[in-house]
Structure formats: structure tokens, C-alpha cells
Amino acid sequence: MAKKKSFAIIGASNFSLAVLTTLVDKRQSITMFDIDQDRLNLYLAEFDSVDAIVLDSTNKMGLAKAGVNSYDGVIVGLGSNIEASIMTVLNLIDLDCHNIIAKARDEKHRRILLALGLSENQIIIPDRLAGKMIGTRAVFDIDIDIDLHSIDDEFISTTLTVANPDIIGKTLQDAGLSSTKDFNIIQIRRKGKTLLPDDYTELKEQDDVVVFAKITVINGLAEKIQSNKESEEDVIPTLFDFDELNNGENSNVDENLFDNLVFEEDATQGMTNSAPKTRRNKTKSNT
């Protein structure tokens, strides 16, 4: 479990609610600030453990009295009101709040926040983040969430679930997944536990394998780890020599096999003697 920290979320918004939900799931201590009491009540209706403070964050004195600089982290979710966001970030910097994360509405907003002194890692543009994730998932054969902060022009970090029977029960070395200059297996998550693997770590079905790899090899890794194709033996039925079947020389054949065979002449005769069958349509159930 993550160490319990205290966070201030400034501005009640959908972005703030998403952050809040994640922090609550991680059992963190959270206080949400907003100038509108009704909006606070609306967003926090389902969160009994979250404190609420009605406050104008553009007022530096109000933030200081609320002790905003005592929190381990401050998240600014005022993306729609650029002026309020800028003034709030300025106030937080003046009050010596070090761990600030701010939502930016667009590139212009991001550039202003950078000019104020925030770093790239402290600024989030949700639309860009979502677009990057969708674009990456469209390009690569990955069906799960991607660690977007690990993506650049050459490398990508993601999690792949072991489903390929060819590697289940094998060590990373035997499965051909030892670290190379092109990829590295960072960790394996198994039944709630995290393993730091080496070449002799054995892979189990449904292991979540966290990989850091070049974009040129990620599809191949996804195929090797996640592939769950049926083998050729499962797909292609067993073929028998008809002469052997007729002479009873193949001991592996069901003795009732021929009972289910219908030849063309018998089929034609059966069709003339039988009544036509009506087609049964499927209907959707409303229950």
C-alpha cells in the first residue's frame, strides 16, 4: 500500500473528480477547495472521507490561512478558467508549495504555466494525454492501458498479460525474454504481489508483465506473451486412410463412426420423405 499523504485539490471539476477518486482508492487524505459551495457539495456527495473548504484560490491570503503549503501535494484542476488557474499557481509558488500539479486547457495555457516556473511533468493536458493513449493503442497490438509517461519517440512502457501456452511454466531465459538492448522486463505482478524478475523467474498464466521496450519490438513481445492461438493439432481434425477404416485396421477409430455418415443418395431420399422444417428466429429478451 502507498504511504499515506495529504493532498489539496483546487477546483471542483471532472478532472479533479477523476484525481480524487484515484486518491481515495489509494486511501490518501484529501481536501478539495472551490469557491462554490453548491459545486463542492455536488462533487463530494459520495465521498464522506474528503474534506471540503469554500475558498477563492486567487486570494493568496485565503490560501495561506487554509495552510495550503502544509499539504504533500497540490493539484490545480481549474483548466477552464485560465486566469484563475494562473493566479492560483502564482499564489502556490509564492507560498512555497513545492509539489504542484496543474491542469492546462491547451498549449497556450501550458506555455504560460511553464513560464511561471512549473516543469513539464507538473503540467497535464487531459485531451492530449487521452489522444496520445488512443493513438498509441491504435498503432500497437496492446489491449491494455499504457504508461504514457514512459512513451517517447523510441521507447514505450506497458503491461502484457501472459496467455501464450508456449511460455507458461518457462523461465524468462527459456522463453527468450531475457533483457536485451531492445527491451527489458521491469517487474511481474502476480496475485497482488510484485516480483522483480531475473532470467530464472518462471512465468505463470495471467502474470502481468511490465515491459520497457523499443516501439519496433513491442508488437512482437505482445504476440509472444499474450498470444493464445489454438495449436494446429487442435484446429485440424485427424485424417484417416479410408481403406484402413473400411478394413478395420485403425484401432483409434470410433466403431460407430459410420453410423453418422450420410451419403448423397441417402440424403436425397431423406429430403423427399421429410416435411420441411421452419426456421426458428432468435428474439432479444427484455429481462
Automatic annotation (TrEMBL):
GO BP terms: potassium ion transport
Annotated stretches, region: Disordered: 265-287
Residue ranges constituting the RCK C-terminal domain according to the UniProt record: 143-227
Top-rank lineage group of the source organism: Bacteria
Membrane-traversing stretches: none
A Pfam family hit: TrkA_C
Every RCK N-terminal domain range: 4-125
Molecular function GO terms recorded: monoatomic cation transmembrane transporter activity
Composition skew (Basic residues), residue ranges: 277-287
PROSITE patterns associated with the record: RCK_C (PS51202), RCK_N (PS51201)
InterPro entries per the UniProt record, alphabetical: NAD(P)-bd_dom_sf, RCK_C, RCK_C_sf, RCK_N, Trk_Ktr_HKT_K-transport
Name recorded for this polypeptide: TrkA family potassium uptake protein
